[in-house]
């Protein structure tokens, strides 16, 4: 049995809950009907809205859908089950306990890959668009599984900065399993067909899949690979985009898309990504158009500091004059010179060599000097070039026209070497200043990025209890105030559970603080597992925890408390051959009409907790209307 299978059986892998789990249970029955699924979906407004959006997406044909029943009918039971499962995982794991795993970036990348799969499916047509969407959404779910099941160990792996095949190898070396294996197990467990799971399993390294070229599995694997690369581009920094853009244009050509068609598809994907991001509360960073990224990513020779590295584009239709100027620039000024006979040739050459200085004759066939200058200035990459115009007539009107076209300087013909040398020194000084500015700008961007990462880590650390990984007292009180404000605004009920580990001091005294810490960690996991997805759990200090129940009256809170009490009592914590069992006492209080502040509800829960302890521990007490009522443990 594989490690992934072991964790699945133990219930430690990410899995759907709530409505999604109910839909999965229904779909497993042979006599299941769509009407049953519709009734379950209608109990979850968020899922209903998401399925309506999917049913009305551009990838689906037909008239607009306005009801949940129509949406489920159009998508079909299998697709609804798969989509519900994917959305459930997003809702459950917006954050987690692995410090080196960027949960926000993970879901943002996964969502972009999902939308890319759906749009590419409209081109390649190897599967239903909505099923391809779910495949893209879950293609990396194995990484989340490892971060969830082994937060400390997986953080150490991620800190090596390994990626791709290196990450898979490192996972197998240290954990005897890799995230691709976990992805497959989770997808199969959630009812995804093996015909889709296998291509997802191999999509990172499609050349190792062994699928016959041209077969459906082969096409699916390469579709997922391309979708992943599209998502990589969407998440890449500005400096990383050049290589990714070039690779995508090459991969797009393999499925019959030229640069323009692929650019339109990518821009459409980004638009859908941002719309889905708003719906799912997942960040989707604004991106420039694909066409602009292609232009910005045009090849740039590496910058050097020597004078020889100065690249000059000389444009002149008169061969002898061009040769003399070229020799002067190369031999006397030490520049790397590229030549063209007219503006049109020069424009194409400029895109290839990215000159820092352009020296152009005014009068030329096909495209003259001012036209060339205006064309360069119209591009992002041409705006920083230093342009010197050669002219035989130095009149005021000509000078004004030249500068209006974007020229930086001019030289009259025939060219005087001393004048050329002076103009070039000014141009080279400009180039040096520009390079220094670009270096400073790059350093500032790098510092800003590092500072942002540090701030996020500090913010996470400031709001997290280091021992249990739960939100700390500060974060818990903030969650309490937020829930209280929402309940007052909407009129919905809410409740608080104050939980205390019984006889915890004796555990520390008898077994030591290391064992006591382990007991707290296991209790924290049990509380988190027992809580609903919308509830907030925090460690208030010592052995005390706070559970804030949203949309829960006193009866619902008591049921949740009893479920939690039994779960903790059933824990068997094994340490060095010892088996430690523990219990908790729980005080419950619900929001009442006379309460003005959240603190009043928590103080009531505290009073109920003390009553539970005085009544013998391992029990639940409710504070209601100024009195405490205890149940037998």
Question: What do you see in this structure?
Answer:
The protein is α/β, with parallel strands linked by helices and 633 residues long. The protein folds into three domains: 294 residues, Hypothetical protein af1432 (Orthogonal Bundle); 130 residues, 3-Layer(aba) Sandwich (Rossmann fold); 158 residues, Alpha-Beta Plaits. Helix content is 59%, strand content 11%. It contains 27 helices and 13 strands. The strands form three sheets. A six-stranded mixed β-sheet has the order 7-8-6-11-12-13, sandwiched between helices. Helix 10 runs antiparallel to helix 11. It is elongated, with a radius of gyration of 33 Å. The protein starts with a helix and ends with a strand. About 2% of the residues have low confidence.
- Share of helical residues: 55-70%
Beta-strand content bin: 5-15%
Strand order of the largest sheet: 7-8-6-11-12-13
CATH superfamily of the largest domain: Hypothetical protein af1432
Distance between the ends: 39 Å
Please give the largest β-sheet: 6 strands, mixed
CATH architecture annotation of the largest domain: Orthogonal Bundle
How would you concisely characterize the structure shown here?
The protein is of the alpha/beta class.
Can you lay out the helices and strands and say which pair or pack?
Blueprint lengths: L2 H7 L8 H11 L5 H8 L3 H11 L12 H8 L1 H16 L10 H22 L4 H10 L2 H9 L1 H8 L5 H12 L3 H11 L4 H9 L13 H20 L5 H14 L4 H22 L9 H7 L14 E5 L3 H14 L3 E5 L2 H11 L3 E5 L7 H9 L8 E6 L4 H9 L4 E4 L4 H46 L10 H18 L3 E8 L2 H8 L1 H18 L5 E6 L2 E7 L3 H16 L3 E3 L2 E3 L3 E7 L7 H17 L5 E5 L2 E4 L3
């Amino acid at each position: 049995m594989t490690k992934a299978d072991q964790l699945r059986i133990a219930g430690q892998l990410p899995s759907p809950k709530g409505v999604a789990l109910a839909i999965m249970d229904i779909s497993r029955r042979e006599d299941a009907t769509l009407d049953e699924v519709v009734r379950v979906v209608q109990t979850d407004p968020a899922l209903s809205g998401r399925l309506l959006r999917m049913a009305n997406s551009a990838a689906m044909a037909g008239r607009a859908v306005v009801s949940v029943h129509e949406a489920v009918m159009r998508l079909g039971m299998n697709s609804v089950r798969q989509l519900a499962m994917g959305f459930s995982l997003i809702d459950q794991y917006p954050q987690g306990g692995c410090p080196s795993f960027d949960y926000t970036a993970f879901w943002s990348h996964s969502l972009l890959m999902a939308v890319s799969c759906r749009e590419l499916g409209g081109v390649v047509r190897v599967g239903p668009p909505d099923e391809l969407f779910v495949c893209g959404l879950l293609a990396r779910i194995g990484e989340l599984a490892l971060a969830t099941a082994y937060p400390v160990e997986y953080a150490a792996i991620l800190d090596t900065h390994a990626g791709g095949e290196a990450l898979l190898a490192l996972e197998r070396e240290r954990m005897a399993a890799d995230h691709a294996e976990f992805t497959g197990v989770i997808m199969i467990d959630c009812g995804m067909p093996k015909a889709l799971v296998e291509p997802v399993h191999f999509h990172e390294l499609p050349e190792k899949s062994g699928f016959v070229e041209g077969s459906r599995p082969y096409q699916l694997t390469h579709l997922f690979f391309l979708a992943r690369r599209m998502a990589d581009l969407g998440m890449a920094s500005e400096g990383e985009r050049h290589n990714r853009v070039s690779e995508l244009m090459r991969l797009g050509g393999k499925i019959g898309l030229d640069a323009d068609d692929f650019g339109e598809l990518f821009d459409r994907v980004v638009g859908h990504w941002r719309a889905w991001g708003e719906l799912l509360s997942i960040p989707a960073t604004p991106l420039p158009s694909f066409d602009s990224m292609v232009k910005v990513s045009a090849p740039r020779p590496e910058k050097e500091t020597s004078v020889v590295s100065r690249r000059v584009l000389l444009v002149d239709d008169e061969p002898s004059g061009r040769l003399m100027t070229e020799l002067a620039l190369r031999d006397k000024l030490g520049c790397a010179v590229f030549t063209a006979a007219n503006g049109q040739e020069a424009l194409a050459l400029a895109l290839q060599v990215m000159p820092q200085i352009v020296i152009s004759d005014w009068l030329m066939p096909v495209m003259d000097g001012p036209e060339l200058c205006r064309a360069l200035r119209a591009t992002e990459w041409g705006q920083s070039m230093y342009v010197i115009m050669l002219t035989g007539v130095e009149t005021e009107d000509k000078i004004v026209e030249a500068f209006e076209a974007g020229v930086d300087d001019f030289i009259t013909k025939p060219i005087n070497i001393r004048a050329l040398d002076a103009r070039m020194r000014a141009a080279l000084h400009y180039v040096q200043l520009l390079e220094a500015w670009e270096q400073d700008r790059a350093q500032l961007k790098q510092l800003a990025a590092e500072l942002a990462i540090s701030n996020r880590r500090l913010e996470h650390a400031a709001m997290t209890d280091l021992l249990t990984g739960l939100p700390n007292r500060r974060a818990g009180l903030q969650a309490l105030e937020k829930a209280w404000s929402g309940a007052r605004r909407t009129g919905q009920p809410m409740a608080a559970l104050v939980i205390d580990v019984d006889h915890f001091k004796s555990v520390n005294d008898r077994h030591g603080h290391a064992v006591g810490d382990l007991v707290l960690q296991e209790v924290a996991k049990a509380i988190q597992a027992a809580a609903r997805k919308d509830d907030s759990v925090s460690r208030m200090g010592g052995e005390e925890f706070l559970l804030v129940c949203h949309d829960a009256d006193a009866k619902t809170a008591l049921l949740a408390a009893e479920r939690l009490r039994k779960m903790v009592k059933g824990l068997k914590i094994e340490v060095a051959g010892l088996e430690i069992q523990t219990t908790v006492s729980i005080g419950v209080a619900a929001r009442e009409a006379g309460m003005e502040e959240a603190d009043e509800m928590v103080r009531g829960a505290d009073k109920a907790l003390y009553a539970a302890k005085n009544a013998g521990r391992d029990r639940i007490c409710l504070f209601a209307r100024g009195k405490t009522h205890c149940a037998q443990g």
